Structures are given as C-alpha cells and as structure tokens.
C-alpha cells in the first residue's frame, strides 16, 4: 500500500533512500546470479563436467559471501533512513503538539498523545526502512526476471507475469479492509494507553477513594476491546497472506509445468529448464518480501492518520505573530545574550467562549538587574500572562517587546512550578537544552546555588536521578531546573511558583538565587506567597486584569 505521507518523508533524504534501494537491488541481483550458477552446476553434473561443477560451486559460495556483505550494508542504510525519518516526524509532531489549541484542549489525553509520539512514530520505521526499498526492489527486479523468462520460454514467462500481477493486485481489497480495521485497532490502543497512564498517575487517589476495582474493570474492558480489534486485524491479514501465497504457488507451478513440457518435447537444453524453474521462484521473492515488510510496519501505518491530524507531516505550521509552535524548541543561542528591558503595553486577552477578558489593557515593565514578582489570587490570570509571554497564546490586543522589538519564544527560558526531571544523570538532565562543557555546567549550577550540593554527591554530575526527580528534594529540583534554564542562555527568565513546595528557609535561598541570576537577565516570577517576597523591591499585584504595584 502506498502511504503518501511516509513516501514524502523518505524522499526528504534522497541520498540515504537511494543508497538503501541500490543495495537492496544488488542483493536481489545476487539471488539471480546465484540461480544462474546453480542451474549451471546442475547441468554440468548431468553432463559429467567436473571442472564446470567446481567453478559453479565456487561462484555460488562467492556470491553468497558477497550477498552477506551487501545485506549488512543495506541493513545499516535502512536503519539510517528509518532513524532520520523517525527523528524528523517526532520533532515536527512535538512542535505541533506544543501549540495553544492543544495545550489548552481539555479533551486531549496525555496517554493518547504519548502513544502517538512514542509507539506511533516508532512504528513507521518498518514501513520506511523496509517496505519502501522493497517496493523499489520489486519494480526494478521483477521486470528483469520476467523478461529473462520470456526469452527462455514465452509460456513460462507469461505464467510468472500473471502470477506476479495477481499476487500484487489480489490482496488490495484485503489491505484496504485491514487499513480500516487497523484504525479501530489503533483507537483501542490509544484509549488503553490513556486510561493506563491516568490510572497510574492517580493510583494514590484511586486507592483513597476505593475505586481500584472500578478502575480495574475499565482497564479490563479496554484490554478486551483491544484484543477483539487485534483479532479482527489478524483474520484479515491471514486472508491477505493466503491470496498472496496462492498466486505465488500458482505462478511457480505453472512455470514449472511449462519448463517440463519444453524438456519432454526436447525443445530446451537442461540448463534452460533449470533456469526456468529457479527464476520462476526468484520472480516472487520481492513479492514475498513486500508482504512481510508490510505486516511488520502495520502498527505504524495505523498511527499515520492520527499523526497527520497532529501535524507531524506538515511542512511548516503557520503561526500568528507572537505565537510559538514551540517555546521549548526555540533556537539555542551560541553565546550569552543580554537584554535590558521587557515591556508589555495594552495587553488584552479573552479565552474563547468566556464572558469577560482575563487581561485587559495590561502594562508591565521588567528590567535586567532587578527581580520582578507578580502576585494575585488564584484565577487572576498569572499563568495566562506567562502563556502570552511564551507565545502559547496570542493576545487580542497590545504589544510584547524586548528592547524595542517583538519578543520571540527563543528569548525565553522557563522554570515551571513542578520541574520535569528525567530518569538519568544530573548531567543528562542539564544537557537537554543542548551540549554543554564542564565549565558551563559548573557556572550554571554555581549561579543557581546547586553546585555545592552536586559536588557533595558521590558521583557529582554523573549522579543518577530517579524518574520525576524523586531522589532529590523539592529545593534541589527547583535549583537544578534553574541551572538548566540558565544553560539555555536566554535573556528572559520566567519562574512559576519557585517556592510553593519549600519551607521558609529554602524559599529565602531560592529568592536570593533569583536575585543573583537577575543581574544578567530579565527575571519575572509568579508567587502565591507574598511573605517570601520581603526582599523583592518590584512586586506587582494582578487584579481584575490589571497590574498594580503591591502594597509593602
């Protein structure tokens, strides 16, 4: 089956694709050459020509060794092609996922997104790396074999040609049915992934509420739906395989009958009879390979519609001014950039369907050298303001400028309220913004106030961090996230609730660290704890969509 999105993705890497196809075609030609050598050896045995037998055997061994080398090279080229396509698709899918419509879509489920970005993207590898080169191999080698058979025996050639056409066209109806049922299978897989992830995240709450049996029942129902969908796909797949095998066997049998008829009639030397028999089998090798690779890549094919809807195959996603497809993947500056002033003028925003503006005619000026803090009641719009600065949302009115030019997502680094840390080393978690030297790691951690603690660990920067950073304290996670943000080398730093989970002493340490960081960049923080801001001179209260200087 032709999936245009995946063909276009593979065509983005023409050299790698061409090299993979060329190597696979050469592998096919070695099979044909070996068939000729085997036919020669068998004919020589019948004629009692020992020298020709030895030469033919040497050719067979040499061709087998050559094919081994070519297969290894082709597997490497196919792996490079699949890896590059996976990387490109996943990068665009993640960029498309980080747009305001999806970030604020309450109906979107993290488990479904995870299945698409993980298993879905990984699943297209088999189609791209194996199936596409196999299609090219079939188009190149099958005509050569059929032409050779027609030259040897027109009737055998016609039988094989008819068998190849039937083996390709016959399963098309089954493949279309499998594609439709595959979509149901992927939907069931996504739903189970989403339910499972949400259940694991809320396990403590489910146990407290006594809903573990109910959750187990829902997961059992999802699993049963996935099992039924899988069985339906497998039944269709078996029928398609049967049609292909019937066509292959019929073609081979018909060609063999034609060869035997020629031999009985004395119309062909024995070597030609052997060639007809062997080439008839080789003509169907690309067809069998094609069918095998299609089944191997079936899971990825079922994920293509979802990835397409997500925007994983889009050339470029258009965005409004100030709207970022990804604030996480902004270009990393090669050198430290500085800015003097972030100015927000007349900013207004209202969520679709909301009766009132969240922010209206809001003005804000934050300068390098001093820490700016924003406080306000829950729901006042503090997070909305940060989303507007980041470009996740597009303002309805107003301007956001950095030193007189529009603020870009690549100007901003963020430390969230609950920093995301990954299972790996401290060095791995710090390096997610890009490669960093040891001196850069040390400088960032020193500025964030975490260096002494890292050096106190037995393995220093190579200390293992558990998933979600649970092996570190809340203050350590905050400061490690701050160091990671500093390594991004952005002139503006947004910090969301950095002291929410800390005691008074550690909260004071974090505020002191932010003061130190603010010497080199514009720093704006959100806080729900005014008592921790006694040392912050520039405190603004967000109320009724406006910012006003907070009373001391």
UniProtKB/TrEMBL annotation:
InterPro entries, per database record: AAA+_ATPase, ABC1_TM_dom, ABC1_TM_sf, ABC_transporter-like_ATP-bd, ABC_transporter-like_CS, P-loop_NTPase, Type_1_exporter
Record bears the keyword Zinc: no
Principal location class: membrane
The ABC transmembrane type-1 domain, residue ranges: 18-296
GO molecular function: ABC-type transporter activity; ATP binding; ATP hydrolysis activity
Keywords linked to the UniProt accession: ATP-binding, Membrane, Nucleotide-binding, Transmembrane, Transmembrane helix
Pfam families per record: ABC_membrane, ABC_tran
Transmembrane segments: 54-82, 155-174
Cellular location(s): Cell membrane
Membrane-topology descriptor: Multi-pass membrane protein
GO cellular component: plasma membrane
Keyword Transmembrane helix: yes
Gene3D superfamilies assigned to the protein according to its UniProt record, in alphabetical order: ABC transporter type 1, transmembrane domain, P-loop containing nucleotide triphosphate hydrolases
SUPFAM superfamilies: ABC transporter transmembrane region (SSF90123), P-loop containing nucleoside triphosphate hydrolases (SSF52540)
ABC transporter domain ranges (all copies): 342-552
UniProt protein name: ABC-type transport system involved in cytochrome bd biosynthesis, ATPase and permease components
